[in-house]
Amino acid sequence: MNVGFLIGEIASGLRRNLAMAISVVLVTFVSLVFVGAGGLLQLQVAQMKDYWYDRVQVSVFLCAKDSEAPTCTSGEVTAAQRDAVLAELQSPTLAPYVESVQFESKADAFKRFQEQFKGTAIADSATEDQLNESYRVKLKDPTKYEVVTQYFAGTPGVEEVQDQRRVLDPFFTVLNVATAVAGGFAVVMIIAAALLIATTIRLSAFSRRRETGIMRLVGASKVVIQLPFLLEGVLASVVGAGLAVGALYAAVRFGVQGWLVEALPLFGYIGTHQVWLVAPVLVGIAVLLAGTASVTTLSRYLRV
């Protein structure tokens, strides 16, 4: 096959349907931005889970002076009850689950409380005596937090067993919903891109029906006739994919690494190397999308 002829046919087709080709590029760009954003968001969620769940602790809050829990009817936790809870945390029964135990006194809890709510009205109204002593338990497997929760249910001197996962899980649920929404938009836009590519190929084939007729008469093969149309759609889609990768790179480079890291330095964020992991997938989707739409359209409207 003459490469020069092929390039000329592609250029001719793109010139004749320039507006439609630009539309294909833009729709592919938008759809793949959503696909890429969904993928990157899922990578971010996974990275955040690894970061936070590795630091998750189970807090065993001991009875304070004014506790109203059924296990605190005798008043504030006694030294014997406090020692008994620690002994249970270090017992052979919980040893397979517990990695470390740290005691937090009222003074420590009050200091952390003041740092956490610094500058708010609640920080000024709280007193050290109102806060609970607690044991901060780091688990070997954070998913096994219910073992500790159930173990100390009804234990005298223990007001409440609180797992930090209960605070984090709703947050991650929101992020997963956002990922699903981005995926939904991506599916809609991909369908729109496929339809637009099919329409573009159909118009291109119609505008060049005379040339294709002559090529049939001179014995040109099916591949020679259909390949320029196929490559037009693929080329426009790949350009859209390239723009999508560039947009995602800029968003991560300047939005996440350039701004979010400084504004909320709480955990590790995804970097530009994750964009390069997603990039081949986006290009592959673009080629597959354009190829499928083009072949389907050509087989129907350009029979050879």
UniProtKB/TrEMBL annotation:
This is Cell division protein FtsX. The keyword Electron transport does not apply. Residues 56-161 form the FtsX extracellular domain. Forms a membrane-associated complex with FtsE. The chain crosses the membrane at residues 21-43, 177-203, 223-256, 276-298. It comes from Quadrisphaera granulorum. Part of the ABC transporter FtsEX involved in cellular division. NCBIfam families: FtsX_actino. Signal peptide: none annotated. The keyword Cell division applies. Its main location: membrane. One of its GO terms (biological process) is cell division. Belongs to the ABC-4 integral membrane protein family. FtsX subfamily. It comes from the Bacteria. It is found in: Cell membrane. It holds the Pfam family FtsX_ECD. It is a multi-pass membrane protein. GO terms for cellular component: plasma membrane. Residues 185-302 form the ABC3 transporter permease C-terminal domain. Keywords: Cell cycle, Cell division, Cell membrane, Membrane, Transmembrane, Transmembrane helix.
